[in-house]
Amino acid sequence: MKTVHYPLFKREDLDGFFALFQNNLANFVIIAITMLAMGYPAAIVYGKVIPGVAMAVLFGNLYYAHMAKKLAEKEGRTDVTALSYGVSTPVMFIYLFGVLKPALVLTGDPELAWKIGLAACFLGGVIEVLGSFIGKWVHSRLPRAAMMGALAGVAFAFIGGELFFRTYEMPVVGLIVMTIILIGLITKKPMPFKIPAALFAIVIGTFIAYSIGNSNLGQIKEGFSAFGFYLPIPTLGLFHGLQLLSTEMIGLFAILLPISIYNFIETMNNVEAMASAGDRYSVQEAQAADGTGTIIGTIFGGVFPTTVYIASIGSKWMNAGRGYSILNGFVFLFASVFGIIAAMASIIPVPVIAPILVFVGISMISQAFDSVENKHYPAVVIAMFPYFANYIMTRFNFAAGEAVANLSHAIVPLGQGAMFTGLIWGSILVCLIDESYKRASAFALVAAALSVTGFMHAPRLAFNISSEYALGYGLMAVMLMGFHFLYRKNHTAED
């Protein structure tokens, strides 16, 4: 093993820190606004949820900094970038509208609903830890183009696309900030006085927003009033939540199982993305770390599963090391404990934060194509499509309604289980391009099984042998096997 000096902190870690911190901040701004609007009191949102997840973020960031050090020493490199860690945006929305909102509606008690959220999050962490034992097996059998394409679909719809929309909510502010981000983080040009691009963009954007009246001084006053002391305190609430989840709220399992499996796959995809960029971490270890971090978060009041963050590639592009991860963990905990997150959520306009996440979306989609063979580009593209449907579906609170129906009645079933659908179609197309029709048929059979059990194209887990989707995938599997024998026969005849 070659001895190397892998620095604890370097200048590039500043850009990585501000990008990662703002990614997390953007999610928590949405969490805070949404939960308060649902009827959860500030005491739960700022006093329990955010400090609890901050504890999970601290654990994960420290652990991934440790993993980066191990990898640097193992490979004798100093350019290793630690995996980013935070709340998954798609999972966040599903927990908000699929767990916390129905729990509050059915119980009418924010305290009980929060405890149900704790139990749901805890079970999600347990599933991911258990899933780490099969992570390597799944990782070795899914084509890279399928995994990268499904991940790019999330980045395109929920990260880049969604936040690009938010950028235009304040055109003057958003366009200026977007330009700074593109110059500083895409073309890598230095900012004035060598200020990190992300920080420079936030300062300039916030200043312009208040100067031209897009934001008012009342937001600053509101922000300062949010300062306080929100110490993360261990809670036994998840045990009461587990009791409720196993009785009155048992129907939530139909949502929890597939989204927990999705989180398990998302970790695998994001680790794969970093491997394609040059840093090959253990998928199994990352999945166990993610699940453990989520469990730690629930012990302190957090109700959102954590995962290897989609921003990992963006941090790699910035040449960050491990210091950005360590700094993010401690600063985020400090900001949560003293109410700085609450204050920043009030003071900094979302269109100022949005362009940073747009950059993350751009980097993820670009990496998806950079990391596969040219001939597999079509597989990346087709794997992205289901998340476009999922995005439209979730923006109508999963019910679709007349607006979505006017586009196509298939949007909702296509968006249900979008991660699985994207992986399946990406894998099938890779197999077809590589002339492996037998493997393509196997993936079609997997799709049929997922459709029968409700993991795909269904609102909940339920055994439905008469599913038209399962029938379609089954017939597709038979047809693909037919092509396998046909082309094998033709090749034999040519030989």
Automatic annotation (TrEMBL):
This protein's source sits in the domain of life called Bacteria
Entry annotated with the keyword Transmembrane: yes
Q: Which residues form a coiled coil?
A: none
Assigned keywords, A-Z? Membrane, Transmembrane, Transmembrane helix
Keyword Lipoprotein in the entry? The reply is no
Q: Which residues cross the membrane?
A: 21-43, 49-68, 80-100, 112-133, 145-164, 170-186, 193-212, 224-242, 249-265, 295-314, 326-346, 352-369, 376-394, 414-433, 440-458, 470-487
Q: What is this protein called?
A: NCS2 family permease
Q: Please give the organism.
A: Desulfobotulus mexicanus
